[in-house]
Design brief:
- There is one protein chain.
- With 330 residues, the chain is mainly alpha-helical.
- Helices cover 76% and strands 0% of the residues.
- It has two domains: 1-34; 46-322, no CATH class.
- It is built from twelve helices and no strands.
Length: 330
């Protein structure tokens, strides 16, 4: 009876996720259908500009995936290129169609089988780095907001509230004592996992500095990707504004409510573009361009990586049908 109830709850959750996704897509479609002149810029991109964006995307994907290699090494596990970069590409390809964290479960099960890396250790890689990412992005965002305010005399209180709130939350978790809350509720379990994972991370200052440096490098690369995308489409933007738009885009990681964050990322970047006087439609158009490039990249490179990963899974005797099971032993 309990299993039946859980099964129905999961199906209801999946249906609600797809319904929410369709609603967001519909809202964006109806808004953008009268913005054809702005969208037409997507058809005017030349090959040289396209190759530049692809090159920056590849650099960005390297910086993001290298985090897994560094953190796995802290547990004494030396990941091969396929397992830190290829797996990153493949699971991001999966996330295009899998809501919530199915890609996370796949990675955890695969690395546990191949490297005997406990799922709790992999979770600490993800959860611990999430707190660091939130802290880094919020502090970067406030620095950019301060720069824009002093230079242009633009002080958007709403964005200050958002960045300040995010920074306060990240700092709260960062300095929270390593003490678990006693509750069986899923949200409390998540918080306990984050606290425990962050404790492991902050107890290693060298590792913390390496990861922080990677996060900053990733933000800089993302800013160049945003700046190049706006410029190539003919939208004038200052680099600090592009940097802030990139931060907003990366913040969508924490609101992964739809497959591939479809609609969420477009809305966030559109909102930031609106408050920076560029325009909501322009921001959505930039995000559509980047989504098209990243989708093709993940499908192509992730698909190729997936072939080798699946072959390795079969050789290890791991059942693909059950690889995403949450009941996998720790």
């Amino acid at each position: 009876m309990k299993n039946t109830t859980n099964y129905k709850a999961k199906n209801l959750f999946r249906i609600s996720i797809w319904l929410f996704t369709l609603i967001i897509i519909a809202m964006l479609f109806f808004y953008m259908r009268n913005k054809r002149e702005i969208l037409s810029g997507l058809l005017k991109i030349n090959l040289k500009d396209l190759l530049l964006l692809i090159f920056i995307w590849i650099l960005l994907s390297f910086s993001r995936s290298y985090t897994r290699k560094i953190m796995a090494a802290s547990f004494g596990v030396r990941l091969k290129f396929l397992d830190w970069y290829g797996l990153y590409l493949f699971t991001n390809m999966l996330s295009l169609v899998i809501p919530a964290r199915g890609d996370f479960i796949f990675s955890a099960a695969y690395l546990k089988k191949k490297y005997k890396l406990p799922i709790s250790s992999f979770a600490s890689i993800i959860y611990g780095n999430s707190i660091l990412l939130a802290l880094t992005l919020s502090l970067e965002g406030m620095v950019v907001l301060l720069y824009v305010g002093l230079r242009k005399n633009i002080w958007n209180l709403n964005m200050w509230y958002i960045m300040g709130g995010m920074a306060a939350l990240a700092i709260f978790f960062a300095f929270l004592p390593n003490k678990k809350f006693s509750s069986k509720k899923w949200i409390i379990k998540k918080i306990n996992n984050m606290i425990e994972s962050w404790e492991k991370l902050r107890s290693n200052p060298v590792l913390l500095m390496k990861l922080a440096s990677l996060e900053i490098l990733g933000s800089v690369l993302f800013a160049f990707w945003m700046f190049s995308s706006y410029s190539i489409l003919g939208f004038e933007i200052d680099f600090p504004d592009a940097f802030f738009a990139g931060i907003a885009c990366q913040m969508s990681y924490f609101f992964k409510l739809t497959p591939g964050n479809l609609g969420i990322r477009e809305s966030l970047v559109g909102f930031v573009s609106q408050i920076t006087k560029i325009g909501f439609a322009e921001g959505v158009t930039v995000t559509l361009l980047q989504r098209a490039l990243s989708t093709v990249g993940f499908l192509l490179l992730g698909g190729i990586s997936g072939i080798f990963i699946i072959r390795k899974i079969l050789s290890l005797g791991l059942n693909i049908k059950h690889i995403g099971s949450k009941n996998t032993d720790d």
